[in-house]
Design goal:
The protein contains four helices and twelve strands; from the N terminus they run H-H-E-E-E-E-H-E-E-E-E-E-E-H-E-E. With 229 residues, it is α+β, with helices and mostly antiparallel strands. The protein is globular and about 45 Å long.
């Protein structure tokens, strides 16, 4: 903890803040907070060299603040570190936020904010978010994990009929040792072709999640989330 505080103080001295990063992040949380619940159909495609799995379909149920249920027969592959609700969990935990300037993302001037969790027990060492401050949405996120993995998430959005900006596609780019993929993703009906001696070899894999048919703020009942996987 002391080391992180010293790093933050040093960073603030070298890179003085020109905008309030906490206000920008609070606006993002407030925007997503307008969503009380939703149901959405998803398609998941995995592109990891040594893991073989066909494209899968699922339906995700969400209810504020943190209830989720995934309806998909015999399938449990979703990289939790990167999903937008996990990012919001990170924002709701104790952290320091640093404003690093602006960067163009697909023609949008995005605020670049670094987040350093203050909880030593979290898997994430630090994250960088690219935020569209006009719509209060995250365009891109990059997280460094304790297990030497790096997860980058790129977001595309659609505007629902109810007027909310929610992801139409999320692309996860994972750079990590093979053992990371096995421990974090190997929970569905697919085959791991990696050799044990190659478990520390760094690989790049991608997971594509496409969202469609959102139904937002329809008043989901709690018993939906009591179902077992």
């Amino acid at each position: 903890m002391a080391t992180k505080i010293l790093f933050i103080l040093f960073y603030l001295l070298i890179f003085p803040q020109s905008k309030d990063p906490d206000k920008i992040l609070e606006n993002v949380k407030e925007e997503f907070g307008k969503v009380e619940d939703y149901v959405v159909d998803v398609s998941i495609k995995v592109d990891i060299p040594f893991l073989k799995m066909p494209e899968r379909k699922a339906r995700i149920f969400y209810k504020k603040p943190d209830k989720y249920y995934i309806d998909s027969e015999g399938f449990a592959l979703l990289p939790k570190e990167g999903m937008n609700f996990s990012l919001l969990t990170l924002l709701n935990s104790e952290h320091s936020a640093l404003y690093e300037g602006e960067e163009n993302i697909n023609g949008i001037n995005a605020a670049l904010i670094k987040i350093i969790p203050l909880d030593e027990n979290r898997d994430v060492l630090r994250s960088t978010l690219w935020i569209d401050a006009s719509r209060n949405i995250i365009l891109k996120a990059e997280s460094y994990l304790k297990q030497a993995g790096i997860i980058t998430i790129e977001f595309d959005y659609l505007k629902t009929s109810e007027g909310f900006y929610l992801p139409s596609q999320m692309t996860f780019i994972i750079n990590a040792p093979r053992m990371f993929f096995s421990s974090r993703l190997n929970k569905g009906p697919f085959k791991d072709n990696s050799e044990k001696e190659d478990s520390v070899k760094t690989e790049e894999g991608k997971v594509y999640i496409t969202y469609s048919n959102y139904k937002v703020n329809k008043g989901l009942k709690d018993d939906i989330f009591e179902k077992k996987d």
